[in-house]
């Protein structure tokens, strides 16, 4: 008798040779990829029936301490906990690679292009300011609201319920986002003596929520994608309170900050669009299916406008000696934030998994600088939006380079071997 096919963990996998006959009908499940079993695997097969359909359930003698990353996939809410045993290309497209997935989901392909779009936007804005100087601050709020709406339509209520099941890693990431990072930004601004025309904007940039791009970076790095989605969503929603509070505490003595007005602005451009997207995704799925294919393109265009406008309007200040001096604090801030987020999760009393450490590192080093640019323009002046615009460019490039470094199988300890 031919041996039944098994999965990589020694469990039975569905395939052409697995058949369940009922009433003379062949109820085989669709064929899935089959890999050779380890010699010590002894699986058990059960036929189960649910909602009128037969399926196969397998039991494996091997126990896995971390469900969702060691050989199988599970889904909770809109966040899929993927098995990262293969490279990102294999996961996305099977034999076809990541290109097939990118073709099916525009957001994946556009996320891959985003760093290049950001860099091209920066070059165009500085080389030819007229390209973006027409974008006035009145356009910022609708543009950022469009970005947030594109996020909201991908969320579900189950995503937030999942947060209560993972309190420790979520708390570690939240503390890194809203405690460690603002303090780090303040220290770097003092050490580098950031120019006064950019000081308040730099501190504000350090006090905003995590960037949505960090979720894609977590995927590339073989990190915990579900945690990244939850962490970014929770920090974005709570930014209504946290960002004005931190900004008032850190720069209130330097630049007057209207915390109430800032909270209202964040409420309008962040919470309302995200809530609208969540409601649409829950109660109007047909509408979401209609607009979702174009939302990634719309979000990328809005991001380009939010980056290019402050760079174009403040071109002379950026290319001045004071502006060039701003690059060193921003580079240092992001570099140290990546390192600090990683090792904070590695502390002996926390001891998070490697995947969690990578995710927290990326979420700490990548923040929503577009939101910081909007708030700086509205409450501090357009000049203070320059640090946020520069941060978007450097953050995207540095974060995705680090994600690719990890995704290729490298580790932090390997850096010494590369030098």
TrEMBL record:
The cellular component terms of Gene Ontology attached to this UniProt record, alphabetical and capped at eight, are:
chloroplast envelope; membrane
The UniProt keyword set, sorted, is:
Membrane, Transmembrane, Transmembrane helix
Q: Which residues are listed as membrane-spanning?
A: 109-127, 139-157, 169-189, 196-219, 225-254, 266-284, 290-312, 324-345, 385-406
Q: How does it sit in the membrane?
A: Multi-pass membrane protein
Name the Pfam families for this protein. SBF
Q: Where in the cell is it found?
A: Membrane; Plastid, Chloroplast envelope
Main localisation: membrane
Q: Which Gene3D superfamilies match?
A: 1.20.1530.20
Which InterPro entries does the record cross-reference, listed alphabetically? BilAc:Na_symport/Acr3, Bilac:Na_transpt, Na+/solute_symporter_sf
Source taxon at top rank: Eukaryota
What is the recorded function of this protein according to its Swiss-Prot or TrEMBL entry?
May function as sodium-coupled metabolite transporter across the chloroplast envelope.
Family, per the entry? Belongs to the bile acid:sodium symporter (BASS) (TC 2.A.28) family.
This chain belongs to the protein called: Sodium Bile acid symporter family
Q: Which organism is it from?
A: Musa troglodytarum
């Amino acid at each position: 008798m031919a041996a039944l096919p098994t999965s990589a963990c020694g469990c039975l996998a569905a395939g052409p040779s697995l058949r369940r006959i009922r009433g003379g009908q062949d109820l085989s499940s669709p064929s899935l990829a089959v890999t050779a079993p380890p010699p010590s695997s002894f699986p058990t097969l059960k036929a189960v029936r649910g909602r009128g359909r037969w399926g196969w359930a397998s039991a494996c003698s091997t126990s896995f301490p971390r469900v969702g990353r060691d050989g199988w996939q599970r889904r909770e809410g809109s966040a899929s906990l993927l098995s990262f045993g293969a490279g990102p290309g294999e996961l996305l497209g099977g034999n076809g690679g990541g290109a097939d997935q990118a073709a099916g989901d525009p957001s994946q392909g556009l996320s891959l292009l985003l760093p290049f779009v950001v860099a091209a936007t920066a070059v165009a804005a500085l080389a030819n300011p007229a390209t973006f100087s027409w974008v006035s601050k009145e356009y910022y709020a609708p543009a950022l609201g469009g970005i947030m709406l594109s996020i909201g339509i991908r969320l579900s209520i189950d995503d937030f319920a999942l947060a209560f099941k993972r309190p420790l890693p979520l708390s570690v990431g939240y503390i890194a986002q809203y405690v460690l990072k603002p303090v780090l930004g303040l220290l770097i601004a003092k050490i580098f003596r950031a120019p006064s025309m950019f000081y308040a904007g730099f501190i504000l940039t350090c006090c905003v929520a995590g960037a949505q791009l960090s979720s894609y970076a977590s995927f590339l790095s073989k990190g915990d994608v579900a945690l990244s989605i939850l962490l970014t969503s929770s920090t974005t929603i709570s930014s209504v309170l946290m960002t004005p509070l931190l900004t008032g505490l850190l720069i209130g003595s330097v630049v007057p900050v209207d915390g109430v007005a800032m909270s209202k602005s964040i409420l309008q451009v962040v919470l309302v669009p995200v809530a609208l997207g969540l409601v649409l995704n829950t109660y109007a799925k047909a509408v979401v299916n209609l607009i979702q294919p174009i939302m990634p393109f719309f979000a990328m265009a809005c991001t380009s406008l939010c980056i290019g406008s402050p760079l174009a309007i403040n071109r002379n200040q950026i290319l001045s000696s004071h502006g060039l001096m701003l690059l060193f604090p921003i580079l240092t801030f992001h570099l140290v934030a990546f390192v600090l987020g990683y090792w904070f999760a590695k502390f002996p009393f926390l001891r998070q998994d490697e995947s969690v450490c990578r995710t927290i590192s990326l979420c700490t080093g990548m923040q929503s600088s577009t939101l910081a640019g909007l708030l700086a323009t509205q409450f501090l002046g357009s000049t203070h939006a320059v640090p946020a615009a520069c941060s978007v460019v450097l953050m995207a490039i540095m974060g995705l380079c680090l994600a690719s470094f990890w995704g290729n199988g490298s580790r932090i300890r390997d850096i010494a071997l590369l030098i």
